[in-house]
From TrEMBL:
An MF annotation (GO) of this entry: sequence-specific DNA binding
Superkingdom field: Bacteria
PTM-bearing positions, type 4-aspartylphosphate: D55
BP GO terms, sorted: phosphorelay signal transduction system
Keyword Transcription regulation recorded: yes
UniProt domain Response regulatory: residue ranges: 3-120
Cellular compartments per GO CC: cytoplasm
Protein name per its UniProtKB record: Response regulator
PANTHER family: HISTIDINE KINASE-RELATED, TRANSCRIPTIONAL REGULATORY PROTEIN HPTR
Length: 539
């Protein structure tokens, strides 16, 4: 109901307006009345009417003075001015008070009703707009963590456009970076026999658990930090400290943190962590450089679980890099190479490697030992990314044989030729071709589920779509996706249900029906299991 308050020093006017307004027809109710501006202030503060009708000339405090004071108190109701011929022009000058309309005395009932209809229509329109904005902000809050994660990942890997690397372009939550110093810890899960036996789903679960563990341990020592999953078994911990902090103390804290993380990962996750520390940077735009340095140290000192990119005696604030031709593969290159392999764009991956090695040749004299290190880094990325799409690179090229071949390579040109041959054979192998056909089959099933999730879908129905037996399709889907057909179908339905619930246009039973469930309690149970909250908590 819309509340309407009236302020006028003439009791007959007050009574006449109250009797003339068709309250039920307008969906309105009486909000109160007052005989002067001072009393009007009290009435408005108490009743908070949506619409305030007020005369101008009144004793104690006139109408415009009252409205000006109310606006100063952030009163946002609609104000309709009652004015006579003599003060009509004066009232029009009060534009800055955000007056909604004017009623000229003497007031006719049709005019009064017409003005109130227009004002109420504007109130309803503004209410709808506020609801839309509130809904949009709620959705932004829900998706903000995912947007934030993507921004951090792009920034750390050096993929943000130069135009975004300006202080004024920093997201609000990172503005404090301008007054702190920064250092990056590069974290790598060591690939051993146990880790190599993990499925893609297992690796993702380990990655999620590692993130929680790292953040829990880091917050005990550092107030400000950010965690970013990069690719495969690589992640980065960005630490931001006060610029006037003791270098010795910060260095000691970083070392203790690294040691605690290594111990905790082995104790709780039963995985080994290799941690490298980049140089400390005073400018936030150099954080990607610190990340490069961190991962460079882990590749340089593979025998150690904890390494740092600066000499201990140099202090945290110096970042003194070891001399020599130790040049790490850029994180951006890692991301592009892994992405090409996971998308089965073999030719693009081969071009990326060849272009990188050609660029590498411009760096000047490089030892064969270091060249083999670089080849090992790129081979590891190929292995990790292919592993994520169900191909074990060791089954095509046993690592011992590959390592022996590296020993015979001399110079960049031989390395380029060796990698070109390997990439051609990888793309032509049965593993790649057969796996590609399997992936196309699974992708077809995924597309079908995404388009028909609301229907009564069974594994047998899906098998008919791709001309496979039900059991073979179930095995193939689980092997490629790390989860069963039914689990994937349920997850798609739950995600769609969440979107519909957030729109707040349907009741729970309607949403359940829209995503393929007629049993509402069962739907609610599944939704709580997958989303962590009940459907009614969203609505």
């Amino acid at each position: 109901m819309w509340r309407i308050g009236i302020v006028d020093d003439d009791r007959q006017v007050l009574q006449g307006i109250q009797n003339a307004i068709p309250w039920g027809e307008l969906g309105a109710e009486w909000g109160g009345s007052a005989l002067n501006g001072r009393e009007g202030l009290t009435m408005v503060r108490d009743a908070q009417p949506h619409i305030l009708i007020t005369d101008i000339y009144m004793p104690v405090m006139n109408g415009l003075e009252m409205v000006e004071e109310l606006r100063g108190e952030k009163y946002n109701g609609k104000v309709v001015i009652l004015s006579g011929y003599t003060d009509f022009e004066y009232a029009r000058q009060a534009i800055h008070l955000n007056i909604s309309d004017y009623l000229l005395k003497p007031i006719s009932v049709p005019t009064l009703v017409e003005v109130l209809r227009k004002v109420i229509a504007r109130l309803a329109e503004e209410g709808n707009e506020r609801a839309r904005l509130d809904k949009m902000q709620q959705r932004l809050r829900l998706y903000a963590p995912y947007v934030e994660q993507e921004w951090i990942q792009s920034f750390v890997s050096g993929r943000l456009a130069d135009s975004l690397l300006q202080n004024e372009q920093l997201p609000e939550q990172y503005r404090f970076w301008q007054s702190t110093v920064h250092v990056v810890m590069g974290l790598t899960i060591v690939r051993d026999v146990r880790v190599d036996s993990f499925s893609l789903k297992d690796l993702k679960l380990i990655g999620y658990a590692l993130k929680n563990l790292v953040c829990e341990v880091a917050q005990e020592t550092f107030a400000h930090y950010d965690y970013s999953e990069l690719y495969g078994t690589y992640s980065a911990l960005l630490i931001h400290t006060e610029s006037d902090g003791s270098a010795d103390r910060i260095g000691r804290d970083l070392r203790q943190l690294a040691e605690r993380l290594i111990a905790a990962a082995e104790q709780y996750l039963r995985v080994k962590l290799r941690i490298g520390l980049g140089g400390t940077k005073t400018d936030w735009r150099e954080i990607p450089a610190s990340a490069e340095e961190a991962f460079r140290t882990t590749e340089r000192d593979k025998g150690a679980l904890w390494t740092r990119s600066f000499q201990p005696e140099a202090g945290v604030g110096v970042g003194s890099m070891p001399e020599g031709p130790m040049r790490s593969i850029p994180i951006t290159f890692y991301q592009e190479l892994a992405g090409a392999m996971k998308a089965r764009r073999g030719a693009e991956a081969a071009r990326l490697i060849d272009d990188y090695l050609k660029e590498f040749s411009k760096w000047g004299t490089t030892t064969n030992e270091y060249l083999r290190t670089v080849l090992g880094e790129m081979w590891a990325i190929l292995a990790y990314s292919m592993y994520e799409v169900g191909i074990v690179l060791d089954e095509i090229f046993p690592y011992d044989n590959v390592y022996a071949e590296w020993s015979d390579l001399v110079g960049i040109d031989q390395s380029r030729a060796w990698f070109a041959d390997k990439m051609e054979r990888i793309c032509g192998s049965d593993h790649w071709i057969v796996n590609g056909k399997h992936r196309e089959t699974v992708e077809a099933i995924i597309r079908y589920i995404d388009e028909h999730y609301a229907e009564d879908i069974t594994t047998a129905d899906l098998a008919e779509q791709v001309y496979l037996s039900k059991n073979y399709l179930a095995h193939l889907f689980k092997e490629m996706m790390g989860e069963s057909v039914n689990t994937y179908l349920t997850r798609v339905r739950m995600n769609k249900a969440r979107e519909l619930l957030m729109e707040r246009k349907m009741l729970v039973y309607e949403v359940a029906s829209k995503v393929g469930y007629q049993n509402v309690p069962y739907f609610s149970t599944l939704f709580k299991k997958y989303m962590g909250i009940t459907p009614t908590e969203i609505i």
